[in-house]
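Entry 14. Structure prediction run on the chain below.
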Amino acid sequence: MALCGSSISRLFLAAVGLIRIADKLNLALLPPRKKITVMLMGNHSAGKSTFINWYVEEHIQRTGVAIETQGFTFVTSGRKRESLTGNATLHLYPHFKLLQDFEGLSEYLCTEISTSKQKKFSLVTFVDTPGLVDGDMKYPFDVDKAILWLGELCDLIFVFFDPMGQALCKRTLNIVENLNETHGEKLRFYLSKADEAGSESDRQRVLMQIVQELCKRPGLNKCGFDMPTIYIPNPNKTSRCVNQIDEVCKAIEKTINQTVQNTLNSLEKDCEVIADVVTGILKVDSEVSLYNRKARTKGCLFGLIGFMLPVFLLVTLIFGNLSRELLVVSLGEKMTQTLAVYLAPMHTFWAYIPDDQEMYIFLGLAVLSFLFLLLARFSFRTKTALSRKQKRQLTEKREYVQDVVKVKKKELYEEYLRQSIGDHDMN
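Output returned:
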């Protein structure tokens, strides 16, 4: 599967890969992430930071009853223990760069890098969110919108409900309801600190209250509502409460295993986006070319009329005043007769014009000719069209993503499935 993942990365990052093609098309295309992103949210003191410390097996995040996490903290693995500020965090995670558009958020954004190799931490990035509370609590940024925006990019969203009185925080429930509308498949609900909920009957009562409150929300009222009870194991403290914290680890591991599938699906979508954009550009260019042809045709027609009108009238006037004998000597009898036939309507026109009005007619025709030439000039204004080279390059890019990348994606999918289920099931 690692081989499959590296092949996908090459399709994105190669010299003629999708990233380079997208850049030339002004598309914001990002390479696939090698780690899954898990966002933890819930009321304050719900155990989000404590869970991260337990999973990593290192004290990274501060914990306590007070609201310790006031901003967003990315917790990821690396070569050495390091803490990064907001700007460095956005540089490290280009997928989340738009977080800088949230006013006041950059100052409350940081990354904690750990060298831990425990569990599947090397393949996970946790996002620890601010503890949510109701009432007069003021956040230095729009925490609701920030969490909703992050929910679109995260692979999993863990919602921790604290049984000690803050589980029914309206802010938490509102955000969960909004996330469920578009990202319900990412949501996982857990009753954290379950060992502190008292007896089994107290714990069941708390669970029922939380589930009932959630089910009051139309979007969250669904069958098979699952909320495992979890708490951090303590060898010095025994508890009869069933601890399903392993279910959290399994959910993370399952999502990691699905990453290749998601990346391959994303690869196909990116190919379709690029192909659609190229098709759109070529279609617009075709319309521009048609417009330019019509503009040139009209310009030529108006210019021809504007140029030929005074010339034709002038020729008519000149030949009309010349004697027939001179025309016969100059052009011959046959040519003179032919010219007389064609110029007869103009002779008739000039015959009706009094001599003292001819100058005005000439001036009027000159103005008319000038107007036609002016129309010709405006008609010749064309739009910028693609050159043949540019159109050929765009066509080649579209053919590359459709005939090369998509075919390669199909081969990688088959390779991935063979690694999972074997060749005999593929036939």
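The CA atoms of residues 60 and 215 lie 35 Å apart.
Filed with the rest of this week's runs.
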